[in-house]
Amino acid sequence: QGETKTCTVTNTAYFGTLIINKQVVGGTASPSDFSIGYFLECDPQFGCNNSGGVQGNEFGEALLFVQGTYQIEERPIPGYTVSYFGDCSGRLNAGDIKTCTVVNTANPTAN
């Protein structure tokens, strides 16, 4: 009776960062004209899945995700071909910083 007890709780972060860069080569579109989607399947112990999108940004858009597997996919715009470079799909672990670069190149016009 009358005892005081102390409990210590330790929180561990399980987050990694994914940076999505957007580049446009040729044509009249700008990076912000493109929408880039993502899907994250968290590790089972976290019980979460996350999907959404970001607007293209030539300076990079940093997303903080719970560790798990992810995939980046862009919604196409007619007249451009999309290419993916770097870490645009795979596994993101706690503390990771990965970069995906999405490049759209204007298709040549027929004469």
Q: What's the alpha carbon Rg, rounded to whole Å?
A: 20 Å
Number of helices, where a helix is a run of at least 4 consecutive DSSP H or I residues: 0
Q: For this entry, what is the oligomeric state of its chains?
A: single chain
Question: What does the overall shape look like?
Answer: elongated
Biggest β-sheet: strands ordered side by side in the sheet = 4-1-8-6
Structural class: mainly beta
**Overall mean pLDDT score?**
90
Low-pLDDT stretches are none
First-residue to last-residue Cα separation: 91 Å
Helical percentage: under 10%
The overall strand count is 8
- Please provide the ordered H/E string of secondary-structure elements: EEEEEEEE
**Largest sheet report:** 4 strands, mixed
Strand % is over 45%
What does this protein look like?
18% of the residues are buried. It is built from no helices and 8 strands. It is mainly β and 111 residues long. A hairpin with a 6-residue loop joins β2 (35-42) and β3. Helices cover 0% and strands 54% of the residues. The protein is elongated and about 85 Å long.
